[in-house]
Specification:
Distance between the termini: 11 Å
Helix content: 40-55%
CATH architecture of the largest domain: 3-Layer(aba) Sandwich
Largest sheet: 7 strands, parallel
Strand order of the largest sheet: 3-2-1-4-5-6-7
Number of helices: 16
Structural class: alpha/beta
Oligomer: single chain
Radius of gyration: 21 Å
CATH superfamily of the largest domain: Glycogen Phosphorylase B
CATH class of the largest domain: Alpha Beta
Shape: globular
CATH topology of the largest domain: Rossmann fold
Number of strands: 13
């Protein structure tokens, strides 16, 4: 195994358990691109399936392995599906260890779910340093009790995307070789105010110039609390008729029942014409400029990268008091924090911003300043680089 003293930077393998594009995937892509300038090389290993993230990696010149032995855990009650995953556990671990040796990997960094212990085990088998990045708070208690001892003691360093995630997994306990809280990055050069781009989207979606837009971004799943966003929309519409609601996010085939529930709620309120479901978009930085107020009504959230993206875009934000969201928003200055599962609180916060556009504009300006100074991708990449260099200096 070569070290950083023998060549510039180092080679980092990112082990990602989900091939679909989302927050963890975006973090890997942005940090890998930023660290390339410092001589760090990145490789990604992930399951087969959706090709959207794989195409992004290819476009960025980042190699990607997708071994057939590596399976994603699917949300199903069918025990056979989980047995298949378990049957592939050892083969996928050995396959990953072979890739680590072949590519002369210095550091293995796991992403998202701690349930995929193939990454930690393969890193140890192949003699690579190990970083575990914990990004969510949805691990069921029984499974958390099983995997947490491994996650506490195997890695050379642990990253959590918020203090809330650290607390969720470890409480106040001492953790192995230490935990670094590194919030997800936002590319403030891409997410930036550009009011002119809003006109294009108003035309695309048929939104009149005088109509306000309340928006949110995130794949359609219960963790994002869309049912509360829909209920809040009804209250907002009752008091402020000239408003549209824009949702940017993928309609996942695994969430068909939830999707149907949302559509039934909207139809029951006769609000079909008030909602615009934009689906998955690659132009989110530009679309942010369409929104007058950004809302994230999550009931479960490790950090909330889209909050930072909205702030960087100069938008006032309304977010729920869950997970790492309160660590991002300065309540009353860059946005408003509301209780989770409370449509009235969401509606009241949004209505206040719609009725006080000058205050909303000032919040947006302060939010962008905070995003640049605290969450920019360059800051996140520097923290990763410092951590990697520290790990590589330490004896195995």
């Amino acid at each position: 195994m070569t070290t950083s003293d023998e060549r510039p930077g180092a080679t980092v393998l990112h082990f990602i358990p989900d091939e679909r594009f989302g927050g963890p995937q975006q973090r890997v892509l942005q940090v890998s691109q930023a660290l390339r300038k410092s001589g760090f090389r990145s490789i990604v290993v992930m399951p087969r399936g959706d090709d959207s993230f794989a195409r992004m990696l290819s476009g960025a010149g980042i190699p990607c392995y997708r071994p057939y032995t590596f399976k994603r855990i699917r949300p199903t009650r069918n025990p056979l599906s989980h047995l298949v995953w378990l049957a592939y556990f050892v083969p996928s671990t050995l396959s990953l260890a072979r890739i680590i040796r072949k590519e002369r990997i210095d550091i293995v960094q796991t992403a998202a779910s701690p349930l995929y212990l193939q990454g930690p085990f393969a890193a140890k088998l192949a003699g690579a340093k190990l970083v575990c990045c914990l990004e969510g708070m949805g691990t069921p208690k029984p499974l958390k009790a099983i995997v947490t001892p491994f996650i506490r003691h195997l890695p050379d360093r642990i990253i959590t995307v918020s203090n809330a995630v650290r607390q969720f997994f470890f409480g106040e306990r001492e953790v192995g070789k230490g935990v670094a809280v590194i919030h997800p990055p936002v590319d403030t050069s891409r997410f930036r105010p550009n009011p002119k781009s809003a006109d294009k989207y108003r035309k695309e979606f048929g939104i009149d110039a005088g109509t306000k837009v309340v928006g949110t971004v995130g794949n359609i799943n219960p963790d994002k609390g869309y049912e509360y966003f829909v209920s809040a929309a009804r209250l907002i519409k009752d008091s402020f008729p000239e408003v549209k609601f824009v949702v940017v996010g993928k309609h996942l085939d695994t969430q068909e029942e939830y999707w149907n529930h949302l559509q039934a709620s909207i139809a029951g309120a006769s609000m079909e014409a008030d909602f615009i479901w934009a689906g998955h978009r690659t132009d989110v930085p530009e679309m942010m400029n369409l929104m007058d107020v950004f809302v994230l009504g999550s009931v479960l959230e490790g950090a909330g990268m889209v909050i930072m993206e909205a702030m960087a875009s100069g938008k006032p934000v309304v977010g729920t008091r869950v997970g790492g969201i309160p660590e991002l928003i300065v309540d009353g200055e860059t946005g408003t924090i509301v209780p989770p599962k409370d449509p009235k609180a969401i509606a009241d916060a949004v209505l206040h911003l719609l009725r006080h556009p000058d205050q909303a504009r000032e919040m947006g300006m302060r939010g962008r300043k905070r995003a640049i100074e605290t969450f920019d991708v360059a800051i996140c990449a520097r923290k990763h680089q410092e951590m990697y260099e520290d790990i590589l200096r330490r004896p195995s």
